[in-house]
TrEMBL record:
Protein name, as recorded: Acetolactate synthase large subunit IlvB2
Keyword Transferase listed: yes
Domain Thiamine pyrophosphate enzyme TPP-binding residues, every copy: 127-270
GO BP terms, alphabetized: isoleucine biosynthetic process; L-valine biosynthetic process
InterPro entries, per database record: THDP-binding, TPP_enz, TPP_enzyme_TPP-bd
Gene name as annotated: ilvB2
């Protein structure tokens, strides 16, 4: 909560509902600066007093840093080193080797280690809990490696769009997809037809879980959010893709290594723990605030 007068510089987000949770509604007493290349797309999300710089973020950051160095420390300007993020090897937290489901954070850690750090795959996250787990836990050292639809968050966007990502790039594309979205629509068959290296990692919890858990977090009456148990490995194979089913972290890690190495279209059915709450509490608080406004 911003109480006294602040300066806020907004970089790298359009402040859409699903990324900023209407945080800007709380920007009273604030001088606001937006830096980015697509000001028209963000104007409606900004308070009227915001000052917009139509600029490349790296250029702006270098100029700002140099100006600060000159003004504050009276040191000569230095070129900025390229952004390079080092990632630790992730530890698998909840694998006891016998559980029948995988903790979603372990799924993210394996994607981070195998798909991102070791293989530089492109990653896309589908609407639903997948989006929250991925955006909260995954880290990238290169731009344009992660895609997520925060504008309308339409289910199906990346179940289908994954094929475009795989078609246009050398590295594999991995989609993090809810079972509900996978059943709604998909383009596995197209990837099989063209032999694109697309991997659908299905977060299988037999539920429209974001709706189920969101209602619970809002203390609302439950709705029927159940999805019949589905074998997505079989589903993938039926369409001509490779199909894998995993229910522990060790298996998932091995299967990810194999699927990425093979570069075939593949569907990985990951049985996840449906009772762990995703990191969407900020959004729930925003919704509660809007209801109470
Ligand atoms: C086309 C469309 N219909 C409905 C919604 C509303 N919606 C958002 S998330 C969600 C449930 C997603 O379920 P699933 O794909 O199984 O993912 P989970 O949340 O369980 O990880 C629904 C129905 C939407 N975003 N898009």
């Amino acid at each position: 909560m911003l109480r006294s007068r602040h300066v806020v510089v907004i970089i790298g987000t359009r402040l859409g509902e699903l990324s900023a949770f209407y945080l800007q509604k709380k920007f009273n007493n604030t001088d606001l600066f937006y830096i980015g290349m697509e000001p028209d797309k963000v104007r409606n999300n900004l308070p009227a007093n915001a000052i917009i710089f139509n600029s490349d973020i790296q250029c702006f950051s270098e100029a700002l840093l140099n100006a600060l160095l000159k003004q504050l420390i009276h040191k000569p300007a230095v070129p900025c080193p390229a952004l390079m993020v080092e990632f630790a090897d992730y530890v698998i937290k909840n694998n006891n080797g016998s559980a029948e489901t995988i903790h979603p954070v372990d799924v993210m850690n394996i994607i981070q280690k195998v798909a991102i750090n070791q293989n530089n795959c492109y990653i896309a996250a589908e609407a639903g809990n997948s989006f929250f787990w991925a955006s909260h836990h995954l880290k990238f050292s290169q731009p344009v490696r992660y895609r997520v639809g925060t504008a309308f968050s339409t289910m199906g966007h990346y179940v289908c769009g994954l094929v475009g990502i795989a078609a246009g790039n050398k590295e594999c594309a991995v989609g993090i997809i809810g079972d509900g979205a996978m059943l709604m629509v998909n383009e596995v068959s197209t990837a099989v037809h063209y032999r694109f290296p697309a991997i659908w990692l299905v977060m299988n919890d037999s539920s429209y879980n974001m709706c189920r858990q969101g209602l619970a977090m809002l203390n609302s009456e439950p709705l029927d959010c159940d999805i019949p148990d589905t074998d997505f490995a079989l589903f993938g194979r039926a369409l001509g893709a490779d199909g894998y089913q995993v229910n522990n972290s060790q298996q998932l890690q091995e299967v990810m290594v194999e699927a990425i190495k093979n570069r075939n279209p593949a569907v990985i059915d990951v049985k996840i723990d449906k009772n762990v709450f995703p990191p969407l509490n900020d959004r729930i608080e925003t919704i509660k605030g809007l209801i109470n406004d």
